[in-house]
Design goal:
The protein is built from 34 helices and eight strands. The chain is mainly alpha-helical. The protein folds into four domains: about 300 residues, Alkaline Phosphatase, subunit A, CATH 3.40.720.10; about 90 residues; about 100 residues, no CATH class; about 375 residues, no CATH class. Helix 1 runs antiparallel to helix 33, helix 27 packs antiparallel against helix 28 and helix 28 packs antiparallel against helix 29. The radius of gyration is 32 Å and the shape is globular. The C terminus is likely disordered. This is GPI ethanolamine phosphate transferase 1.
Length: about 900
């Protein structure tokens, strides 16, 4: 083993990337069955010849049904609820994004969460859907949604019309959100006028019109819900639906049209979506027309329906989003999509009892057919001795159950038929879940073993790093017989695992899950003698401190759900200089800055999440504060000893800060006037972004001055991405990190004369764990301190509107990631400076950081679940994904900041002379 850990870091990075992806492989595999499944024929004769599907993108049920102001934002749809049809709430699943939502509604099943990463544009849905089963489908709307269902086989009858992506302007310019829905209406009118007759639509049955209305989603991102602009967009959407309804009613005056209005997902208060909160998962569903019941009076909704909806007097139907596909299929008289997991919502249907029962058994037959295909798929991958069929008597005797259902229908015992069908449907869904998660425990066990094996390797590498050459060379000799036995044992298990995978026809990716833990633990056991013989590198006092840091990590883990715990840890940091005797002689000025910055940082976890209306005051105040701080630092006679003096870089920062403030002020006013993002301001934003990023690499050649340059650049760039109080965060973080750097140097300087760390045998001391723990804590604080939630939906489109407003998901997401990483850059730079100023092994310290992060990540791994409420499921996924993403970004930043913190830095530490004078005095 080499003393250098650098060669191991790329391997560890790849392993962490694998761990991140594995969570979706374990818990959220796609339910798609590759082998073709025969669709169950629908022989029902219904009154519906055509179906009109309206989707108000990003519209929560709360906003559509709200009546707290004494009026409805959507008067037409409100009148439909009260006079014409049935209404309710459609419950979506995570991730609450457009693609999974539309797949659930139109194809009837829930894609795995990784589907959102397959792209927003030209991402075809290559599986069965209601559109596939229809005779002909026409779609209007967004270029990111409506083309999805027109690709692949059997789609020649699906026609779509879209506007250009340039129209998806999230700046609010010229009422851009409302224009999207108006385009759908106007283009449909043109279609009726010029193309309608060419398709012979009047004679068509099983016809679908799909209108995708994106305005509410765009307005929610751009203007935020609960604003007048958002309310205006809902009103416009309602007007569009009303006009489309009127046109279609005049075209087909036969009462054979069914209308369905719903949404793909909701939206948070701060204009985002993706996770599992109620405002994101509860969407409206309104159905009226042929085959649909009229409004029913009911008192059962009291307590379930919010008072502000004023709808508790009407019967409310709650369904799952995938049920919509089954409902549309039954109404149209087409086959239910073969991968659908929806259940027919009988209460919507205005059918005879016999037709209800027949429609229900059709749903059950489709699910049983899918279950048998899934069972065959799993059975074909395993030898008989390894296969355990779904233990359910109803499924085992499903043919007899279906016979009994038919017998009950023939004898007109429809209640008994529906009851038997219900149990068959429930059992089929349970069976599908059983086979979809058949390998879950196996994959989870392999992943956990890999996690632990990697942890053991990291511990060994840390021990190697803190051992002298003499200690390493004194590695105890393990008998060749033991090594031979060890190699033979692992070789046998290795080959047996591969043969087992191949013989059972398991997916090839399973080989990775089997081989990875074996490889990691093989390496660990090969070095176990050395590890055991040198375990004394961990002093007893260090082990005690490790336990304390473990408790601190537990607090950090808990802070993902209780942010205020970060303030508790900050209180502990605040008193650190008081209880550490080596910091007694530290300058009072630095102690004061430390106390004040800790107190300031402790306020942020208590503040509400960033969202809502932009607060220009905080941004202007912060920009002015950065100018004052720069002048104050340079005028301070004490800090001049630390190399803080005017230079080209600092002058450049000061010179362009007023331009930055003017640019922010101009952009904010432009958005308020509804004029969007001016091109000049957009160019200035990109220019300043590149300029300040470049200045990080061109700072002074003294350490503290370089940190000041990095802090100022990060703070000013962060200002451009801020929308509220989070702009102030770097003003408190930077001085706190500066004090940490200097405190670590003081502690190191006091230790230096006593040579506690010797070169005969380097001991792993408390200092290494303290520095690593501080680093991990500052990283987590930097995430939550800027107003984020431990959720994938805590990001705000307003962060990037100084740079882009047209819908460009990858660019927007990249810019959002830049904002999140900016405080990370500052913290990682400080960590690099601490390593540099204390002459510590930065790679070894980073290994300790990885060990701490892994101990947190494995807790989140065990907390991940795909059961329970969608809020719990979404939160559990978010926690693990955020933690692993942070680790991956730390790998990148750790290497990138090397060029910021070491490029042309003077070999003599600029603070050594001052600290030595303080120490001697």
């Amino acid at each position: 083993m080499s003393r250098s850990n650098m060669g191991l870091l790329p391997i560890i990075f790849i392993l962490h990337l694998f761990f991140l992806v594995s969570i979706f492989d374990i818990y959220f595999r796609s339910p798609i069955i590759e082998e073709p499944i025969k669709a169950v024929n629908n022989n029902l004769i219904t009154n519906t010849k055509r179906l009109v599907l309206f989707v108000g993108d990003g519209l929560p049920a709360e906003h559509l049904f709200d009546f707290s102001s004494g009026y409805s934002k959507a008067p037409f749809l409100r009148s439909v609820i009260e006079n014409k049809g049935s209404w309710g709430v459609s419950h979506t699943r995570v991730p609450t994004e457009s693609r999974p939502g539309h797949v659930a509604m139109i194809a009837g099943f829930y894609e795995d969460p990784s589907a959102v990463f397959r792209g927003w544009k030209e991402n075809p849905v290559l599986f069965d859907s209601v559109f596939n089963q229809s005779a002909i489908t026409f779609s209007w709307g967004s270029p990111d949604i409506v083309p999805m269902f027109s690709k692949g086989p059997k789609t020649d009858h699906i026609h779509y019309f879209t506007y250009s992506s340039e129209m998806e302007d999230m700046s609010g310019k010229n009422h851009s959100a409302a224009q999207l829905d108006s385009w759908v209406l106007n283009n449909f009118k043109q279609f009726i006028q010029y193309n309608f007759s060419s398709y012979n639509i009047y004679e068509k049955s099983q016809l679908i019109f799909f209108f995708h209305l994106l305005g509410t989603d765009v307005a929610g991102h751009a203007n935020k819900p609960y604003t007048l602009q958002y309310e205006s967009t809902i009103k416009n959407m309602d007007r569009v639906v009303k006009e489309l309804h009127s046109i279609i009613e005049k075209l087909f005056d036969d009462d054979k049209t069914t209308y369905l209005f719903t949404s793909d997902h909701g939206m948070t208060v701060w204009g985002s979506h993706g996770a599992g909160s109620m405002i994101e998962t509860e969407t409206p569903i309104i159905v009226w027309g042929a085959g649909i019941k009229k409004p029913l009076m009911s008192n059962n909704s009291v307590g379930l329906t919010p008072d502000n909806w004023k709808l508790s007097h009407l019967y409310r139907h709650d369904i799952n989003q995938a049920d919509i596909a089954v409902l549309m299929s039954v109404l149209l008289g087409v086959s239910i999509p073969v991968h659908s997991v929806g259940t027919l919502p009988l209460d919507f249907l205005d059918f005879s009892e016999q037709d209800r029962a027949k429609a229900y058994i059709l749903n059950a037959m489709q699910l049983v057919t899918q279950l048998k295909a899934k069972e065959y798929q799993v059975r074909s991958q395993l030898a008989n001795c390894f296969f355990y069929p779904f233990p359910n008597t109803i499924i085992s005797n499903y043919e007899e159950v279906i016979y009994n259902i038919g017998k009950a229908i023939a004898s007109l015992d429809f209640l008994a038929a529906e009851d038997l069908t219900h149990h068959l449907i429930v059992s089929s869904l349970a069976g599908l879940d059983y086979y979809n998660t058949y390998f879950q425990n196996f994959l989870l066990t392999c992943t956990v073993l890999s996690f632990l094996g990697l942890g053991a390797i990291v511990i060994a590498e840390i021990m190697y790093s803190y051992s002298s050459d003499e200690v390493i060379e004194s590695e105890p000799q393990v008998s060749r017989i033991k090594i031979f036995i060890l190699k033979m044992a692992f070789s046998f298990i290795f080959l047996f695992s591969i043969i087992l995978t191949l013989v059972n026809a398991l997916p090839r990716r399973f080989i990775i899950y089997l081989v990875l833990p074996l490889s990691l633990w093989y390496w660990t056991f090969l070095k176990y003698s050395w590890i055991l013989s040198h375990i004394d590198v961990f002093k007893r006092s260090v082990i005690t401190k490790i336990i304390l840091y473990g408790l601190g990590l537990k607090l950090i883990v808990l802070s993902f759900t209780s942010r205020w715990l970060l303030s508790l840890i900050l209180f502990g940091l605040c008193v650190w200089p008081m209880v550490n005797h080596k910091l007694v002689d530290a300058p009072k000025e630095y102690k004061l800055v430390w106390y004040l910055s800790c107190i300031g940082l402790s306020v942020f976890p208590f503040l509400p999440i960033v969202g809502g209306e932009e607060q220009l005051f905080f941004k202007i105040f912060t920009g002015c504060a950065w100018i004052i701080v720069e002048f104050t630092l340079h005028k301070s006679s004490t800090l001049k000893y630390l190399g803080l003096k005017f230079n080209f870089v600092s002058l450049t920062q000061l010179f362009f800060t007023p331009l930055l403030l003017w640019n922010i002020y101009t952009i904010t006013n432009s958005f308020k006037r509804g004029e969007g993002l001016p091109l000049v301001n957009q160019c200035i934003s990109y220019f300043l972004l590149v300029l300040f990023l470049g200045l990080m690499f061109g700072g002074p050649n003294t350490l503290i001055s370089r940190f000041n340059t990095v802090s100022c650049s990060v703070g000013l760039i962060f200002l451009m991405f801020s929308s509220s109080y989070e702009a102030i965060f770097p003003l408190f973080l930077a001085p706190n990190l500066l004090c940490w750097i200097l405190f670590e140097r003081i502690i190191k300087y006091s230790n230096y004369s006593r040579c506690i760390i010797t070169y005969e045998k380097m001991s792993l001391s408390n200092h290494e764990f303290r520095r690593s723990f501080f680093f991990v804590f500052y990283i987590i604080l930097s995430f939550f301190g800027i107003g984020n939630l431990a959720s994938l939906n805590s990001f705000d489109m307003a962060w990037v509107r100084s740079f882009v407003t047209l819908f460009s998901p990858f660019l927007m997401m990249s810019l959002m990631i830049v904002k999140v990483l900016l405080p990370f850059i500052l913290v990682t730079s400080a960590f690099r400076f601490v390593c540099y100023i204390t002459k510590a092994n930065s790679t070894a310290l980073f290994m300790i950081v990885l060990l701490l992060c892994n101990s947190m990540a494995i807790q989140f791994l065990f907390n991940v679940n795909n059961k329970g409420s969608w809020l719990e499921i979404g939160t559990s996924i978010s926690h693990f994904v955020i933690m692993k993403s942070i680790v991956l970004f730390l790998f990148i930043l750790f290497h990138c900041t090397k060029y910021i913190t070491t490029l042309k830095i003077s070999s003599s530490l600029d603070c050594d002379d001052v600290l030595r004078k303080w120490h001697e005095s």
